[in-house]
Design brief:
Elements: H1 10-14, H2 18-27, H3 36-50, H4 57-77, H5 85-96, H6 100-107, H7 111-118, H8 126-136
Length: 147
């Protein structure tokens, strides 16, 4: 009977860099996070990896999976409250240090529309959300939280 080539073990995937992957696993095993202590420890490992100039393939794979575990824990344990369009827009304007007039001109949205959104009298439509997302360099979903 012919042997099939192993393509799933860590040695087959990472070759000589397998030791680094196993070192990371020993440092912080990849398992569901259950406590704030687990979260803090996972974030410390993530920070140490992100601070490196470059990551080897096993380090990047480990970081990807650990980040997913943190995201899953936070989605359940640390819910994000919805933010109204006006509050989000106000925050982004303040952070970027622009005026309503500058925003209107650069984003291609009427200043009256921006004023009405900030006053809570009007909601953003998809086209406006797209323009604001491009201007502020954020995902369009940034504006899709509150009713």
């Amino acid at each position: 009977m012919a042997r099939t080539k192993d393509t799933t073990s860590s040695r087959a995937v990472y070759g000589k860099t397998e030791d680094r992957y196993l070192e990371l696993i020993r440092q912080f095993p990849l398992r569901p996070l259950r406590t704030e202590y687990d979260l803090d420890a996972a974030v410390a490992v993530i920070d140490s990896l992100i601070d490196q100039d470059t990551l080897a393939t096993p380090e990047q794979d480990y970081l990807d999976v650990l980040s997913d575990l943190v995201e899953a824990y936070e989605a359940e344990a640390v819910p994000i409250s919805p933010v109204a369009d006006a509050d989000m827009l106000r925050f982004l304007i303040e952070q970027k240090g622009v005026t309503q007039t500058e925003l209107a001109k650069k984003a291609g949205i009427a200043e009256s529309t921006i004023s009405a959104v900030l006053a809570g009298k009007r909601k953003l439509n998809r086209l406006q959300i797209g323009k604001l997302a491009r201007f502020f360099h954020v995902a369009p979903g940034t504006f899709a939280f509150a009713e």
